[in-house]
Records
---
Amino acid sequence: MEVKSLIITGYGLNCETETKAAFDYCGATSDLIHLNDILKEKNILNSYHILSFIGGFSFGDHLGGGTVFANKVKYGLKEQITEFIKSGKLIIGICNGFQTLIRMGLLPGLKENYFTSQKVALDWNDSGVFRDSWVTLKTNPESPCVFIKDINKIELPIRHGEGKFVAEKDILDELESENLVAFRYADKNGRPTSQFPYNPNGSLNNIAGICDPTGRIFGLMPHPEAYLSPYNHPNWRTAKESGTLRCEGAGTLIFRNAVEYIKEKL
Amino acid sequence: MIHRIEISYIDKWRDAKSESVKSRITEILNLPVTKVNHREVYTIQAEIDSSAAEKVANELNNPVIQKVRTAATVEGNYNWLIVVGYRPGVTDNLGRTAFTAVGDIIGRKLKDTEEKVFSSAEYLIESPGLSRKNAESIGKNLLANELIQSVAVFSKEEVINNGIPDNIPAVSGFKGGNIETVDLNVSDVELKRISKENTLALSLEEMQTIQKYFRNTEGRENLGLPAEPTDVELECLAQTWSEHCKHKIFDAEIDYEDNDGNREQIKSCFKTFIKKSTDEISREVDWLQSVFHDNAGVIAFNDKIDLVYKAETHNSPSALDPYGGAMTGIVGVNRDPMGTGQGANLLINVWGYCLGSPFAPQKEVPEGLLHPRRLRDGIHKGVIDGGNQSGIPYGSGWEFFDERYTGKPLVFCGTVGTLPKKAGKVRGFEKTIEPGDLIVMAGGKIGKDGIHGATFSSEELHMDSPVQAVQIGDPITQKMMSDFIYEIRDRNLYRFITDNGAGGLSSSIGEMAAECNGCIMDLGKAPLKYSGLDPWEILVSEAQERMSFAVPKENINEFLETAKQREVEATVLGEFTNSGKFHLLYNNRTVGCLDIDFMHNGSPKMKLKAKWQPPKWKEPSITELQSRDIKKDIVKLTGSLNICSNEYKARQYDHEVKGLSVVKPYIGKEADVRNDSAVFMSEPLGTEGIVLSSSILPRYSDIDTYHMMASVIDSAIRKAVAAGADYNHIAGLDNFCWPDPVQSDKTPDGEYKLAQLVRANQALYDYTKIFKCPCISGKDSMKNDSTRGGRKISIPPTVLFSTISKIDDITKSLTLAPEFAGDYIYVIGKTKAELGGSEYYSMLGFIGNNVPKVDGDKAAELYAAVSNVTDNELARSICVPGSGGLATAFVRMAIAGKNGLDIETDRIPADNGLTLPELLFSETNTRFLVTVDPEKAATFEKALEGFTLSRAGIVTEKRILRIGSISIKQKDIEKAYKTTLDKI
């Protein structure tokens, strides 16, 4: 079957090209559509299997990352997205997209309630500044997240100013007990840590990515779409000379999991 | 109605922004402070009721970490409240976004000019005993720039008694629409006064030429124009003829005399040296597509795309408002590739700044100038926000520190773009205009911002420099505009695109009109940010984020309809003609009509004298050099500002967006050493790559700009070759920044400075020719002096030479990091006693005289050979020794590889009789340090047979850098490298 992926663009989002490259490389067919065109023809969502809220600076992060974009989507596409989730399809939010999913109340979607009041937040990094660096992530093997299947540990770049995951203790406890934490910042050996720069922003419980209880809505701060080629990795030269270079960038694993899931389940 | 929305942090969460303000108050201003709480305030002036305002407040708030109120909170633990808002008319990006958000939430768009949203920031300062004066100092010297922002300070008592005034900085009080006639039938003294008082920056000779033009022009009354020029016409000529737009000094006739009394008559530095070299090289290479006549040069890359590259400076605005000025620098240079050919996609940014030391004592900074640290923070932040928000990764960034940049910082920003070979039916790099095409402006609206930017930057920075000359960029408006452009580009809805930069519409439409020889444009049709602008202001405003198009009439509906759907402002302003006239209307009435030919070719050529006299500087004695503690010197030099790491700032720039990064700005095992070049794929998952490198060596100018220029060209090309670039496919960009080189009372040494310019150009011709590296774009900025605070500060003559080149297979690209213990270390090239202008001499307080020179023919042969070495994968890492010489090159290698190095100094190829400091710190050109797998050593040596080459050491696991008898622990050099600018 043809797996169709929809990537929403516009208003300062900027990772559309590489996100499309990621899905297409992993076997899907992607369309880039401006949010205004979707709002004009809302049912267009029905013809897609995977919906991406990509990275970038929607509205310049003014009023907080994702805030204004989330309002536009929430006021315009609530019904269509609710239907999209119900029909067993997938949603991924990366960086600014993760912020947007949280602001809309699609994540963490506790007890499968969506568009609720906001439960968690991505706050300013503890350093108070934007940071671009590579991080190591450890997956939670118990997580229902379909995007991280068969991944134990993965290296990806982060680049954000507002990525510190925070929530009240009861919410954090529920995220943990329901295994909704998918990725945690970890040291080189894969041990989750709160130590800078491994945890680059001071996220509570070292959280880098979470999913909803179905595992089909996934948000993360790091950028898997920026590690499609093995030559994106900062130490590819050493790996190449030692004969340990991956044949694909590890970011592809996440997109392939999504495409394969749709092929199997829908 | 006016509503206030106040968003602040919930106390239990850490407020990183407030903490940062607090630490800067103590660190930079040395004032005691217990706590800072900041809050964002949005003032909505709109026809909405309180419940709607309440709803807006709740949606804007992030309830997990923030709290929101629709009234002013006056209670709390604080002593002073500092309110920072924008001055009327200044771009308020937060306010503009909130304006959109309010519309989404209440279900109707706010009315464009009637309803408004303004943002402000409020800081609650808890510091018992802090005086009002000191509280004001925090506001003025740390939180706000009064040029663009308003600062109000209230004590807690005042807040409780009087409340907080609403922040409504609306522009009012201007009637607008005025057209004045300027009487030029006056004395020369009066002509000069008119030029000076109106910031026209026109010389007497130019004013006289204009006077004569109007005396001789007939038939003006038929158009309803007075015989004398209108202010619209005079301003238009001032912009078109400004140094910034016209490059008068590079075009001047120069009578040059060298120190032996030999005279040379130069018709134009640009044509005689820069263009001539490129023209000659274009007969030998087949990859030059479009040079010198568009916004940026274009070179071929592969069968799908061409590459576009342009670098600019934005110095004067950055001196006044570092954040806004620098942001405009980056988003402004983005529009150059965007306005080249049919409009290039933006791929990579680069930046580089020349600044005074951030540690300079305040008393050394002349009154009226911002402290270098504040400049630096603001400049970085501006380019960080501008680049990151535009979604363009940066490839390389550098900083160079010298006290002579305290008067005017240099802010270099560059952008690489890609043009499709074919955009719809036309070739990507071509553009045309037909008479009858419509003049369309798209993007932002016009305000008073940036008026006189072009003419002001053509002057030195003085007390009365116009405040409205500063613009603030709005990357999101620009991003939405660029998305729109790429969407319609391949549908061929427009025939011509260019950007609105310096000089505004006057320059962009003026240049476009020259393509088809005429236009008629109604300034009254231009969309304004607020009412009250005079027609001349509309014409020359440098309000940002605007592009101009020539749109065939049959496409206009589709063009405007698509713009509307993408929320991009687009307006038809008039029509291109072939009348020979630049005809301007204001609400259908003619307000100006100039001959296109006079506009572009009528300015008198400058005639200047240049006289070269080489300086003679003091040298340290041989004994003095021989008595140095070299180990200490290496560590100290490693930590000096021009060598040390600036990773803290660099990591705030996105370099991974687009997923193309192969060799990153910081490299090595722990990615903690700045690399000399960058490599990017041209598309995700691609194998063909783009290599970028650059070089800047202003200290050499103190000795001889000829060798300065030779050295920057040599080292920029060397860095590209070291990264794996194809030596036969390297193009250059020249960015000249000079102190005023025109002899006058203000500049008594003008003839010398002009001779420095000539000599730099001579070297540019000589060496770009030898290396077959044509300059495809360039820019000059010629008035980098400041007289503020009663002290003249002039920058040293500065050239940034940047290269763009191709690597066929990115998997062969290299960095400077020696990753494998046991690899051999080779030194290529002979070291000479060339400490003149070096970082080492500078550290010792000398300039010296033996500036590094370049043997071009030898270098060209070597670079071709090294290019083969990388192509055949015979090297594992290549480092280019630069500032600091071999010593700091070894240091950077060791830190990057997290390996030790064992170097035998007696095996480093060198001239006879060098002292150890000369051997280790000379910045001799045309050298490489290469690490090689021992198994490949023989093949490597064979490939470089005939060149000066020596195996001088080995990579070890010991974590010790041993250079001859000197041993330094890794942790000591790493500490030196990283501490100086840590968290600064």
Note: Chain A has seven helices and eleven strands.
---
Amino acid sequence: MLLAIDSSTGTSVAVVDRDGGILAENAVDDTMRHAEVVGALIRDTLSEAGVVAADLSAVACGMGPGPFTGLRIGIAAARAFALGAGKPVVPLVSHDAVAFAWYAAGNSGDLLIATDARRRELYWSAYSGVTAVGLPVRSAGPGLSHPEDVPASTGSRIDADTVSAGSLGMLAELTWAAGASFAADEPLYLRSPDVTMSSRKRVTA
Amino acid sequence: MSAGTLNRDAPLVLGIETSCDETGIGIVRGRTLLSNTIASSMEEHARYGGVVPEVAARAHLEALVPALTSAVAEAGITLDDLDAIAVTSGPGLSGALMVGVGAAKALAVALDKPIYAVNHLVGHVGADILDESGTPFEYPTIALLVSGGHTSLLLVRDLVGDVELLGETIDDAAGEAFDKVARLLGLAYPGGPEIDRLAALGDPKAIRFPRGLTLPKDMAKHRYDFSFSGLKTSVARWVEKQEDLGNEVPVADVAASFREAVADVLLTKAIAACVDYNVPRLLLGGGVVANARVRSLATERAAAAGVALRIPPLSLCTDNGAMIAELGAQLIMAGHAPSTLDFSADSTLPVTEIQVR
Ligand SMILES: [Zn+2]
């Protein structure tokens, strides 16, 4: 059983079980209130699932790509929860959860997923299908581009407004069961911090 | 998570502080400091000459779990032993604050412990309780909190119940002014220690730089407020004039004169508050307390005014998690209920809001 958290778009929290599926899932789609809502979402989702921290085997965490501020809050929450519960964090690429759900629903072929990166840019990932056990195969990305530079989709395209922690959690369960590897344990900001280096300016003319 | 069962005599509290560039994790039991772990991203900001909010926020995320782990080990406790979690809700850099807030909430839920969302500035005052060098101040006290992020003068009648903001900077924080002047003198970041070092070799009376908001017309409206942006401009103008004249800039004299202007205005206003409110106690806090002249002038002026002065050790003056933990512990000991899980980070949280519900 896993707690899953994704804050790459809004804030989504789920408790999933490999056999029982998604036991509870709650989300706040607002992309500006992650810090405000993440605590209550975790508390409520655990209690809806009738689960306490000790029952979990790990915490699945969406590492993005996603806008910095919100993304970081979900990762901070996942890491802190895992530390408190004495469980490991299993990191995943957030787009993979969207792809996983799409293929699991019976779709096939190439897939391109795009999410909002603000400043008129998109985060994107391309998929070519699934493995024998149903894990999505990412063929390119995640990347960050202006809309016109996003690779043309050779199959279907999803412009996702939300990433479901339930899908993320189920993907983590399957990845675990298949012995496949998880993502790197680092946030996918895909953008350097904004730094405006002001040079020393004269104050007198 | 019921507050009714809380240990209110000597609660074991873990505090999380991420309002600026220090990731601070502190653990206290009642009034006793068990751990004060600080990870700073200062070096990452050095090449920019000031704190870059996004750089600070990224560093908090990376430092958080290692700092929590080492604080718990140093305190010789387990997370399950804790009675409560305390976290800085504001004021500060919002992206930075949110890392601590998100982590603190999740930790509290994982451990099923109550959470106290507290005010960073009031936390600086609470740090005094952990100073083992003497009996902490009774209240009321005036508190002068000076750092790269804030310059505030507070009247504290009750740490957990009654804190009033008398004044604050209307532009740059004093620490920021040190950084900016250091930069225009070609010195490294952070500017405070560099200016302090050079100033020791210079003449503080060489140049009479302006004392912001001390003219009679300003004092009417801004009696306890500070302004350092005019001072910074005045230093720049003076330096440029020397350069234009082809003179070598007497860097040590500029540093000493600038430092004197900052220390003078800080202490003039702080002592005035002590006198006006008839409060014979002054507490200093914030990273600028590391400045040798601020400390020595505080000692002189306080003695002359018959004001008792307290300066906690530097590790408790700079931003840290122990002061946040202690403010949480004080709230618990005073019987306050925990915060709900719904609070947010508030970059402009007023000092009157000691705890955010
Ligand atoms: Zn501070």
Note: The mean pLDDT of chain A is 95.
